[in-house]
Amino acid sequence: MKPSYWQSQTKDKPLFPELEWSRPENKLHAGKLLVIGGNVHGFAAPASAFGYAEKAGAGTVRVILPDAVRKLIGAMLPEADYAPSTPSGSFAQKALGEVLAASSWGDGVLIAGDLGRNSETAILLESFLAKHRGRVTLTKEAIEYVTSAPDTTLNREDTLLVLSLSQLQRLGIAAKMPTPIKFSMDLLHLVEWLHEFTTSHKPFIIVKHLDYMLVAANGQVSSTKLAEPAEIWRVKTASAASVWWMQHPNKVFEALTAAVSQA
User: Model pTM?
Assistant: First the structure.
């Protein structure tokens, strides 16, 4: 028997079609999204997130990158702002002031990835999550920073994690969940796991498993049957989810579920 907390949709038959009609028509009211990410060796994730967020209907999108990439970006991303970087080209710990100031401008923050692996960046990210009070979405290797020091994120309000099943597995271990995530898990057991996780921990979850995209928030779970394989999905889904969430802040589960049906 299907649990009452689980709802299903397809791309053709979304669960919450009314959210599409209630979205802001004027860009001035469509929300401001800040995208954070990049390092000197790669900045495709934040650059892609910028485009995906605009396509998803964000009113305004800004990007903040480490200043080590300024010369590499040139005029490719004129909307970009820059914060101090480490000698290796990732965000430095002293970038916290600039990142917090930029995030106070927005209605939502997307930490899009390509952060590199740096201890200073890890300290910056944990400090930012502890100090910023607002909606934050994390994806790609930003999740790795979370699983290595999970306490701040597991207890943080207004946090969305868009992650792979292997990352969810590590998150479950870090959170000391009694049931381990297995790649052989069927859909029902994963839905039950997500229900339990989001009942006992504050972050919302979007994860792909088999041919489904799963959304979990406050104990509710939705599954979306994919019409075709989702190859490069995390940044695209995280961008759409960030936009829909900031446009429907009082309907988190519905907004994230609708975003998945549209992404």
Answer: 0.94
